[in-house]
Q: What sequence folds into this?
């Protein structure tokens, strides 16, 4: 981490002194400029805090938001001091809610956000910059959108290198299938980066297994109900040709299991998933799932908001950081039956304590574009 703490304290002391002098001179009530014109005194004031995400019904997003809340509590605030902007899977609502939050707080905001789909990231970060707020994003953005091109207000973007872990789960699945048969893939929202990468991981593994056929790959939009309906249609269409199922996330796997159960097929077809949710880890321990992949959403949720907050108050200047601190991968851990019990004890039965000032400690290097 760069040595900016000492510089920040010195800047803060000077800024507060200048602000007090300005107030004494009758200038304290002047309107403060927005965007890049915001001065250090304004940046040092408490920014309004928010997390913009899909929904909290999902164990994954609940973990993300819980991490954000833990960071907020580390500041001596309460969970209620962080606003949840729930977009319900709508990119339009995501953008509208963020704009409303910015307007309500005159741009003095620190926001963490999953933009819901990749194209929505640009209008979101441009709205934040125009208002003078600060934002860190996760998962979804287009490859041509970079924080350093937008400026300090777009603090950082974190994603996970899903292609390799998804390939590893596919290889585990193929081994369980005996190296032959038919596999179906149930994916996420097609415009989501993780959905694309997880399907690519499956396709990469298939290159080494000529006797395994990809029967079908369709989006289930990360949704359990849609996954159950899609899997039921796959069973109708392909029947006993299906000898393995590759799921883009745990919620999808739950739907697949329900569909198999309805047909009396539960436990007869190996399944792999992604996210490392508590229910999925238990299913790995029970043998219902072969594997899942943990992306530490709790840490991701906390550190994304921490980065936006510290940039907003002036603890560090994002443009002075290397590119790998502006765009970086989060950690991934594959969970199999061999290590599921130890994993559960460490990450589920108890929550590791994180230093929210260690911005990049558990990260996995800068994002690489193909």
A:
């Amino acid at each position: 981490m760069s040595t900016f703490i000492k510089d920040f304290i010195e800047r803060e002391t000077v800024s507060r002194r200048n602000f007090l002098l300005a107030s004494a001179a009758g200038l304290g009530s002047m309107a403060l400029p927005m965007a890049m014109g915001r001065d250090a005194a304004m940046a040092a004031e408490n920014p309004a805090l928010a997390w913009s995400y899909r929904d909290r019904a999902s164990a994954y997003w609940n973990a993300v938001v819980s991490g954000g809340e833990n960071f907020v509590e580390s500041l001596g605030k309460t969970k209620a001091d962080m606003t949840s902007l729930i977009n319900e899977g709508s990119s339009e609502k995501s953008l509208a809610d963020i704009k409303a939050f910015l307007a309500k707080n005159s741009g003095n905001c620190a926001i963490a956000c999953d933009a819901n789909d990749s194209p929505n990231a640009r209008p979101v970060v441009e709205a934040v910059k125009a208002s003078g707020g600060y934002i860190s994003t996760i998962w979804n953005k287009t490859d041509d959108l970079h924080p350093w091109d937008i400026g300090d207000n777009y603090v950082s973007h974190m994603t996970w290198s899903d292609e390799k872990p998804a390939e590893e789960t596919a290889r585990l699945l193929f081994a369980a299938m005996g190296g032959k048969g038919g596999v179906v893939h149930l994916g996420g929202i097609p415009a989501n980066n993780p959905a694309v990468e997880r399907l690519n991981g499956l396709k990469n593994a298939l290159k080494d297994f000529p006797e395994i056929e990809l029967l079908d790959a369709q989006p289930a939009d990360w949704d359990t109900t849609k996954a159950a309906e899609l899997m039921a249609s796959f069973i109708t269409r392909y029947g006993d040709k299906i000898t393995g199922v590759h799921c883009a996330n745990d919620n999808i796997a739950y739907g697949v299991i329900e569909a198999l159960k309805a047909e009396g097929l539960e436990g007869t077809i190996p399944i792999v998933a992604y996210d490392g949710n508590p229910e999925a880890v238990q299913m790995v321990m029970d043998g219902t799932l072969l594997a899942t992949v943990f992306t530490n959403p709790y840490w991701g949720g906390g550190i994304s908001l921490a980065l936006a907050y510290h940039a907003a108050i002036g603890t560090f200047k994002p443009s002075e950081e290397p590119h790998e601190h502006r765009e970086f991968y989060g950690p991934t851990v594959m969970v199999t039956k061999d290590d599921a019990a130890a994993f559960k004890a460490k990450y589920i039965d108890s929550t590791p304590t994180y230093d929210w000032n260690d911005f990049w400690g558990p990260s996995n290097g800068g994002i690489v574009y193909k």
